[in-house]
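Justification of computing resources. Each target in the renewal requires a structure prediction run like the one illustrated here; the chain below, 89 residues long, is used simply to show the kind of job we budget for.
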Amino acid sequence: MAQDSYHIRVKGHLSQQWCDWFDGFTIIDAEHGETILSGSVADQAALHGLLNKIRDLGLPLLAVNLVEGEEVSHENKDLERRSDSQESV
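Resulting structure tokens:
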């Protein structure tokens, strides 16, 4: 069964220590005090569980985007580049 990949944008910054709590999603600090959680879920129930964790932390949810096929690899590379450039600051 294919897993769906998502980019979830929230207000606020999270440290990398939260990756395990967010089921292995990649945590990327974005501009304007936002964070992007990027990863795959097995089904809609798993997605809702992840969204519940965001709610439980009190993080404002800004966007949930399904990432289609080839977009996944291209967008993950772009996100990794952005993350690397932020770490060097």
